[in-house]
Write a structure and sequence with these properties.
Chains B, C: This is 2-oxoglutarate ferredoxin oxidoreductase subunit alpha. Chains B, C: One of its GO terms (molecular function) is magnesium ion binding. The complex is a heterotetramer, with two copies of chain A (344 residues) and two copies of chain B (615 residues). With 344 residues, chain A is an alpha/beta fold. Chain A contains ten helices and twelve strands. Chain B has four domains: 220 residues, Pyruvate-ferredoxin oxidoreductase, PFOR, domain III (Pyruvate-ferredoxin Oxidoreductase, domain 3, 3-Layer(aba) Sandwich), CATH 3.40.920; 187 residues, Thiamin diphosphate (ThDP)-binding fold, Pyr/PP domains (Rossmann fold); 74 residues, no CATH class; 108 residues, 3-Layer(aba) Sandwich (Rossmann fold). Chain B has 20 helices and 23 strands. The longest helix of chain B is centred in the N-terminal third of the chain and has 20 residues. Chain B starts with a strand and ends with a helix. The chains are: A alpha/beta (344), B alpha/beta (615). The complex binds thiamine diphosphate (2 copies), iron/sulfur cluster (2 copies) and magnesium ion (2 copies).
């Protein structure tokens, strides 16, 4: 195969002619800009890229991308995208979904897409609220959340989307945040390179119904101390001056935060997204506190497993390889297989 | 001993036994032999309800009925002339269906006290006079089989298992069937274990010879070949024919077939069959549920495949929301509903036609789709092609309403010439269609078909977005404009209403019928047989059968208007009759049975005779 | 300056502005003042489509229409006499609906070049003659409000925000509304921030005074109180009334209400409202999806609650399979479908009546349910009670077909006396009902209602199992018996068909009408207004309105037979007309619009006049 | 509250009059017998016990229990049972489901029930196949499984039901096996005592379509070396003579098997089902090999978290506590709330 030709696309090439209609200040704008800015890097012709979404504010996304796109129905994007991806391995298929779309009504399709390792890049815009239906709690809202549908507080514990994905055998799991374009793009890059399902949770601010949900991760006063930036192969330290670090106390299964100054270097966990056992990434996913302290962002896990698409296509290819007739001849043979008899 | 040979024009045999007795296979083989001989055939299996019941119980009975004749027949037969009962349960479960005088061949070895008790026989019906009026042939099938295999190197269990071949041998002798195909079949089936080939062949021959020698079977029958169109035939079930039709649709359209399916009785076999045809480029995906199955099929259609999903009623209910999306997206999609008895889980192994309403009306909003139904097992092949043709040409979901009766029944199928099958090639959009020569309008319609362009991802310059929100005419942009919505709703309706479908044909050989019997789907056989019966008795009756339920044939109104009375037999509470009444204001009378069973020709004949009397 | 006072019998005002301008609140307050005065009222909000569009754009326009009169009115009015336009977008979006001569009050402060450009105005329509023919009142609403609040201790943003109160003050002055309730309301609303109370009250007064003093408003209007039945009233939306109806059903049945719901426009408000009534023992659960929502409701019904699920079309589609289970289980279940424009996602904030087919027919198998529809916002209360009554008495799912128009519209509601509400108490089974005195037969029916006993877990001695497989009559055991299935299918159908529902009433004051207008659901208002209009012009027309769609009133056939023509206006493509034609073989003519908007009385009047001419 | 009266029920009291109709030899028989044998221990009147199932061979279960029962529709049992349990906290609600019913079509309801911690005892009969529909592969079937629907082998990786449950925030997770009645009953006992969702995977042999799937855990030759019996508070050792043990290698996140003889006692992991961090139970769930070696059975995790039911009922109770009028008076007040006016 020859080197791919550089297509020289720009972010502008990925802007559709549709007026963007999120509330002013919505985190979705930043994500859109980041995605549009990242797309040229892929060096994939626009026509070979498809965005499939469900329903929700976030799910309006495909309309704004000048690629192929489908704004489908609530929760079903992973299923629809699976059919597309499996039947068209030549395409780059992206799913855009919300915390309600992906984890509430669409939970089953999501976990099955991950288990199958369908070649989808799944971007979950997590604003911990239902935006489009005007502010009910979502499966990622904190316990006791007061919303229109829970006037005295929600009664149920939220999902941790990354834990759920890992429990569902995901091969690529990452988290990023709307406000940090560079980081967001670095995660998109890793996701795009992954063969199989790449699950990316993006913390997104809904300034109308759940404003400030991720402020501790954004405000100058707290963000450095709260955010843990995972870098493959690097010891996990954080804080403005790297004063905190993550250790794996012997005997325990989880991770803990320590002061770097008082911790022997060799005790600091060195991040390795490629560990085969998901237990490590799972432990990472449990690190954040309710106040969002110790929130890792970056690629938690990225391991190889054949994608569903590739296995299915190989099976078809293998069967086709045995064929030495025209489809019509083959069909005639198939129709006439089994016990036949002839009347003259 | 030379036996008398008697000619018959038709025979109905039912093989019945325990689930483990291999009755389906026995029936299949007998059918195949019969096909080789050139009789017309119609068969119907009857599986036990979903769970394998303990051996010897009533719920565990499995049966297979085959009707064969020297003329063309339409149904598997109302009542068996011969019952093969492998155990007391099989006898008890089937006796009520037998007309007096029928032959009953029983495996006496299984009429033990324990087995009798299992099904509530206080005494053996073979010993009292409860079977007087039938021609009972007690045969020690099991022990004779074991005896015949004494010298064979097989376990006792394997020997005992071969008793169905003994029964098949006996029946094959009785009806003078050519058995070469069965011998070949046994060789194939047990290729890996030659000792089993030998044992089963020996059991078969023992059965044959038993017929030849025993005095109990004094007469041997012959049913001459039927006059059938020249050509090559095979015997085929509806599910198999439907599967092949979908494969053929792939070949004739040049598109890969993508099946998204979730297993459900009685549709699962289509998934099984299609998953064996990867070399045609058919991709099958067993999805996590019915919603994912139809979603994946729709996604594949969006990508340029022929998206298909197969299911039964409960699955269609779950798919409704996605079918509604497909209506909005205007993409091809074939939804196969192999109907079973409802509501809810109902009786999953029984037949019914009660999903017509759901197919026509079961979606939110104005969401019209095309609906068609096959009339017989072999017709499933052509119906599948027709469904694909409509879906591809008009970019619309099409619901194909099969049912358990056609799906599992079988009949001889005249193999079509592949080149004569409809040409289903479609053209994908390849370039801008806007007046300016650069814009692409995904909802600019073909003036003829009202279909929108099918621009598949990967086509440079046609990047566009579609979705479930209302779309502006032509551009497909999101639109809340009231007039546009009204226009789009009416256009989607017109797109279905104006699909040209063949006129309905009326069979009225006498030309003076005043009563029309109108049916759809799998009732074709029994209705046809009933009409024949009436005509043979000098009564005039007209028959018309709908393949297209939406849209309906253009001439239907005129046809209905010609008759004094229109009778609509259905295995539901009158769903087609309702539509006919609404559309044509014709006082269609429903004749309805919702028993999980096909109509018998006899009951329809009786009912129609009553109707004829009163016009 | 003393102003002229002019008497009017009715006025339609539309408040329109950007989503952020508080138009819904302004309209609500004006409505409340008007209610206090004793006018009859009907209101209709119009929200922007689901996403908050950038300020000042057309998709961001939000409006609220209120119609009030000195007689009883039926609709929110076809065309506004007065438009309050807070910005250019609001003007542009609403202008087409105004009749010539209408008053337009515009907030000139917002007519900046930038804002004009946003909606495609090249020049300000205030400056050219494009508004000739209207009575335009340019008012610098924003700056005057800010000016009026100069001395107040509020931010500029808060001051600016109070401009809707200025507008309200002005309109209240113009139509001589009593404003005490608004002052009280502001005190409640801003209780935590007294400075805002003061500011908003000041803005209101400034608006009032502006009317009083400016020359532009020379006339002040009065609309006398309407003659209404004595009693206490409140203004209520359909969704609120429906919610209260469900709470009332809980109280009157003595059962806990369990709501399983998944948010969806325009039904979510019912979930919100019911979740505030825990002290009535109402349990609300926001489920993971619609299937879980109806499943949980059914589970709660099984346990002895009144199980309810609320949704819109796409949700009902998803619930179909579970509703079919509820049909088989024969348990009470209320399914509320607040219809919106489809198919698929359609236009979620717009109204439509296109889910009738799905309600009647959208399930696999023969799965009949009761279907009813409210005719106006306040009627939603009684419809909810009626749905609960049928569900509880007949142990059946009931689909309640509301729609966006009644759900969000409002009207005065004469508060019922609680004791006069229907008594919905039911008796749970408490002891064996078998002939032997010890057996419990879960499918032994009440001969009157055909309802089966409701034996809730916790009742000793009545342990039993139910499920979706076909059940034997009486025992409820799994049954594949053909005759039993036919019997059960027919019995379930009869259980619905024989529910006694009130006769349909015909309004034909002249007594000699030859044309009947038949409607259902939310078209009641416009149809009624149109008929009135015709009668006022000396034409005779009869009106009948169906609350019960399944079963239909027993006298309907007879009623239909009395008229030469039956016209059925529907916001769909003719779904009720179809049923009427099928059931009664009456050539019902559909008048259909599928625009996402209610009919206007005027267009119906024109259409009906045409029909009357041709009988 | 006074001591509960001993009801003196027996297994026989829990047998319904319905003929049991599984295939002869099906593992479901053993589970049924074990459950019927265990029920009397609960000392709950039969009428306060409800079994809710979906569809599948396993889901026929309620018909055979002489309690209240509902054989619902495919995959929906957790949702239906949730409505029942939340509205009737006085009942003991059990869900019986299969690997297809719970993890394929019903996956979403399952994970949400677990996240909510609804007070349900969920018994998942895992035979790694679709029994009722006659032998298609299921979401727990091994990769490459040849079945009617996958004639050249399945393309997708299975779920690990316990990992999935843990990723979904389950508070109680256990595994047991049809053939070991004593163990099965011990797990039922623990599940019954748990307040909230108790998720129990039961390995069940389908002798018709997937015979022998769990034979390594049953056959005398292998079972002792393959099965790890978890006992709370005990070091995890297994093998006929306890010759194997489970350790948590320092630095790693997963668990490994060692020979006991060569392992210092203090390195052997002591099982603690009560660890708050699910990372431990997750690590345990990853232990088994594809050949079923190192398969832990017993209670993996059992931690306290308020059940959804209890929070909902408390909210209702709190609201009701404020009421001092009859329901009718309250209703009259509610109807008349807001702005009203009176016409005389
Ligand atoms: C079948 C169905 N159910 C419900 C809805 C209503 N609905 C639309 S979006 C949504 C949730 C949106 O939340 P989320 O996925 O978090 O997206 P966000 O708006 O927050 O980006 C709901 C409940 C729908 N459109 N379809
Ligand atoms: C909506 C719906 N889809 C599909 C089916 C068919 N169906 C019944 S049981 C079953 C799967 C059974 O597998 P599992 O849950 O593992 O139970 P098992 O029979 O193995 O105990 C399927 C696909 C159905 N009854 N309803
Ligand atoms: S409601 Fe929230 S998520 Fe939706 S567009 Fe507005 S700010 Fe964004
Ligand atoms: S098919 Fe399998 S799971 Fe079902 S009853 Fe038979 S052995 Fe048991
Ligand atoms: Mg959200
Ligand atoms: Mg299973």
């Amino acid at each position: 195969m020859s080197e791919p030709v550089a297509l020289k696309l720009t972010a502008k090439d990925f802007k559709s002619d549709q007026e963007v209609r999120w509330c002013p200040g919505c985190g979705d704008y930043a994500i859109l800009a980041a995605v549009q800015g990242f797309m040229p890097e892929l060096n994939i012709p626009r026509e070979n890229i498809v965005f499939v979404s469900g329903i929700g504010c976030s799910s309006r996304f495909p309309y704004y991308m000048n690629t192929y796109g489908m704004h489908s129905i609530h929760g079903r994007a992973p299923a629809i995208a699976t059919g597309l991806s499996v039947s068209r391995p030549d395409l780059s298929v992206w799913v855009v979904t919300g915390d309600g779309d992906a984890l509430s009504i669409g939970g089953n399709h999501l976990i099955h897409a991950l288990r199958r390792n369908v070649n989808l890049k799944i971007l979950l815009f997590n604003n911990r609220i239902y935006g489009l239906t005007k502010g009910q709690y979502s499966p990622t809202s904190e316990v006791g959340k007061i919303t229109k549908s829970t006037p005295v507080g929600s009664a149920d514990a939220p999902f941790n989307p990354l834990s759920l994905a890992l429990g569902a055998e995901a091969t690529f799991v990452a988290r990023t945040i709307d406000s940090d374009r560079k980081h967001l793009q670095s995660v998109l890059r890793a996701a795009a390179q992954h063969e199989g399902s790449a699950f990316v949770e993006i913390y997104q601010n809904c300034n109308i119904f759940n404003d400030g949900a991720f402020d501790p991760l954004k405000e100058p006063a707290t963000r450095d101390d709260f955010l843990i930036r995972l870098e493959h192969g690097q010891p996990i330290t954080f804080g403005a001056g790297g004063q905190f670090c993550v250790v794996h106390p012997p005997g325990g299964f989880g991770l803990e935060v320590r002061e770097t100054a008082n911790t022997p270097v060799e005790e600091i966990v060195v991040h390795d997204a490629g560990v085969a056992d998901p237990a490590y990434a799972f432990a990472l996913s449990r690190l954040p506190g309710l106040d969002l302290s110790n929130t890792p962002i970056g690629v938690f896990r990225s391991v190889d497993r054949p994608s569903y698409d590739s296995v299915v296509q190989e099976q078809v290819a293998a069967a086709k390889a045995t064929v030495d007739r025209t489809p019509e001849q083959q069909l005639a043979a198939l129709l006439g297989s089994g016990d036949t008899w002839t009347i003259l | 001993m030379t036996k008398q040979i008697r000619q018959l024009d038709r025979v109905v045999i039912r093989f019945a036994g325990d689930s483990g007795d291999g009755m389906q296979l026995t029936g299949d083989r007998f059918t195949s032999e019969t096909a080789q001989l050139g009789n017309d055939i119609s068969t119907l299996p009857n599986f036990p309800a979903e769970i394998r019941a303990p051996a010897g119980t009533l719920p565990g009975v499995s049966s297979f009925q085959v009707h064969f004749a020297d003329y063309d027949i339409l149904t598997p037969g109302d009542a068996p002339n011969v019952l093969v009962a492998m155990n007391p349960a099989a006898l008890k479960a089937n006796l009520a269906d037998l007309p007096r005088g029928a032959d009953i061949i029983v495996n006496t070895d299984e009429f033990t006290r324990r087995n009798l008790a299992k099904v509530g026989y206080a005494a053996s019906p073979l010993d009292d006079d409860s079977l007087a009026g039938y021609a009972v042939h007690p045969v020690a099938l099991t022990s004779m089989t074991i005896g015949a295999l004494a010298e064979h190197d097989v376990s006792k269990k394997d020997a005992e298992r071969a008793k169905n071949m003994f029964a098949l041998g006996l029946l094959s002798w009785m009806y003078s069937r050519p058995y070469e195909s069965t011998l070949r079949f046994l060789e194939r089936k047990f290729a890996a274990r030659p000792e089993l080939v030998a044992a089963n062949v020996a059991a078969f021959r023992a059965g044959w010879n038993f017929g030849e020698t025993t005095e109990d079977f004094a007469v041997r029958y012959e049913v001459k070949p039927a006059k059938m169109l020249p050509g090559t035939y095979r015997n085929i079930t509806g599910n198999a024919a439907l599967s092949l039709g979908l494969v053929a649709a792939g070949v004739r359209s040049g598109l890969p077939v993508f099946l998204g399916a979730y297993p459900i009785t009685p549709a699962s076999d289509i998934l099984h069959e299609l998953s064996r045809h990867k070399k045609f480029g058919v991709v099958t995906m067993q999805a996590e549920d019915e919603i994912a199955a139809v979603g994946a099929a729709l996604g594949a259609s969006y990508g340029g495949s022929l998206g298909v999903t197969t299911t039964s009623g409960p699955g269609v209910a779950l798919k409704s929301e996605t079918i509604s999306l497909a209506v909005a997206l205007e993409l091809p999609l074939v939804i196969v509903d192999v109907q079973r008895a409802g509501p809810s889980t109902g009786m999953p192994t029984k037949t019914e036609q009660a999903d017509l309403n759901m197919a026509l009306y079961g979606r939110h909003g104005e969401a019209p789709v095309a609906v068609i139904a096959p009339k017989s097992p072999a017709d499933c092949f052509h119906a599948a092609l027709e469904a694909a043709r409509i879906a591809l040409t008009y970019r619309t979901p099409v619901i194909l309403l099969s049912d358990n009766y056609v799906a599992n029944g079988s009949e001889p199928w005249l193999l079509p010439d592949v080149e004569s099958l409809p040409d289903l090639r479609v053209e994908f959009a390849t370039k801008p269609n806007g007046e300016d020569g650069t814009t692409f309008l995904p909802y600019l319609r073909d003036p003829q078909t009202l279909a929108r362009p099918w621009a598949v991802p990967g086509t440079a310059g046609l990047e566009h977005r579609i979705g479930g929100l209302e779309k502006a005419d032509k551009t497909g942009d999101i639109s809340y404009d009231p007039a546009n919505h009204d226009f789009m709703v009416r256009t989607r309706a017109a797109r279905i209403e104006t699909i040209p479908v063949p006129d309905v044909e009326v069979e009225d050989p006498d030309g003076d019928a005043r009563v029309l019997v109108l049916g759809w789907g799998s009732t074709y056989g029994p209705i046809g047989a009933a009409c024949r019966g009436l005509r043979q008795r000098g009564l005039s009756v007209a028959q018309a059968h709908l393949r297209h339920l939406a849209p309906m044939p253009a001439n239907l109104g005129e046809v209905l208007g010609r008759y004094d009375k229109v009778v609509v037999p259905e295995m539901n509470l009158g769903q087609l009759a309702h539509v006919i009444r609404a559309k044509y204001l014709v006082d269609a009378i429903g004749y309805n049975q919702v028993r999980g069973l096909p109509f018998t020709a006899a009951e329809l004949e009786t009912m129609l005779e009553e109707v004829l009397k009163n016009v």
